[in-house]
Amino acid sequence: MKITKRQLRQIIKEERAKLLHEQAGALLSQGTLEALNDALERAYYEAIDGAMADGLDEAEASDAAFAAIMEEVDGFADSMGHHNRGGRY
Predict the structure, then answer these.
(1) What does each C-alpha distance from 63 to 20, 35, 37, 52 come to in angstroms?
(2) What is the dihedral of CA 33, 34, 36, 41, to 10 degrees?
(3) pLDDT of 73
(4) For residue range 30-76, what is the model confidence (pLDDT) as tens digits?
């Protein structure tokens, strides 16, 4: 099943809202969580646009964008001394 870019954005928006709601009492403030999610979303769509400009279709571009962001998250975790152990930090 293929989804459009618009549908993907809506899904991300809805999931982000759920996450923010669940995280209300967590370690990070609501503002920090929103800023982080906004930055990740911008990076994701920028990466998709770049990948599609390089000739990938939307599904391939989405996969490539997600992989690129996860590599950055892994790099950040490593730089902070939190190495990925079994899929968890």
Answers:
(1) 24, 23, 18, 11
(2) 140
(3) 85
(4) 788 788 889 999 999 999 999 999 999 999 999 999 999 988 888 88
Structural domain range at position 72: 5-79
Number of domains in the chain: 1
In a domain, 88, yes or no: no
Stated length of the chain? 89
Per-residue burial over 14-44, b = 16 or more CB atoms within 10 Å of its CB, e = otherwise: eebeeeeeeeeeeeeeeeebeeebeeeeeeb
Specify if 23 maps to a domain.
yes
Angstrom CA distances, 11 to 17, 27, 45, 67, 83, stand at: 10, 25, 13, 18, 29
> How would residue 5 be classed by pLDDT, with cut points 50, 70 and 90?
confident
DSSP letter assigned to residue 28: S
